[in-house]
Amino acid sequence: FRRYAQQLPITEPIHGGDPWKLLSCLNIREEDRLLFMVYVATLFIPDIPHAVLMLHGPQGSAKSTIMTLLKDLLDPSAVGVSALPKDERELIQALDHTYLAYFDNVGSLPDWVSDALCRATTGTGFSKRQLYTDDDDVIYWLQRSVGINSINVAAQRPDLLDRSLLIGLEQ
To answer: Considering the entire predicted model, what is its pTM?
Structure first.
């Protein structure tokens, strides 16, 4: 078990709580509520592939707020919902250091990001050369829950869309 600098303590659960009360403070359409709650429930099951949460909607539709609330509830972090890293090494490190990797205000996804997110959600290994060595590798094994919010659906490639839960929000 490793604890990284950005990780915060997990919220203490309350006996007899009602998880459906979560929906009272979220801007999710009636027809998407059950699907969203099933997604949230699956986040508590480790070591399985999870859907990529894709929230989309106009400015002011609480996309970032929903992701921040889920992040605070399940994987509290001083960083919270973050910007998408600019290169694959930074993306791998960001994925390695969190359970819920939620990315905010993503306009579009380059092909390499789409491919990396597909691999990270289903489970895969990444390797890179260890610093100060010529032949040693650092191996990352990742299976993460990933989410992206954007005004339009940022994912365009079919493999990522196939793994995604698309939830449209209204203002």
So the answer is: 0.85
Q: Contact, 97 vs 4, CB < 8 A?
A: yes
For 40-69, what is each residue's pLDDT tens digit?
Answer: 999 999 889 999 999 999 999 999 999 999
For the beta carbon of residue 135, count every other beta carbon within 10 angstroms.
6
Are 148 and 54 in contact by the 8 Å Cβ rule? The answer is: yes
8 pLDDT band (50/70/90 cuts)? Answer: confident
E strands, the chain, where?
52-56, 100-103, 124-129, 137-142, 145-150, 164-168
Asked if residues 32 and 163 have their Cβ atoms less than 8 Å apart, the reply is no
Read off the tokens for 84. Answer: 């998408």
Which of 100, 118, 121, 129 has the alpha carbon at shortest distance from 155?
Answer: 118
* CA–CA gap between residue 142 and residue 121 (Å, rounded): 8
Among 153, 125, 151, 155, CA closest to 140: 125
123-170 pLDDT, tens digit per residue, is 887 777 777 777 788 777 788 999 999 999 999 999 999 999 999 998
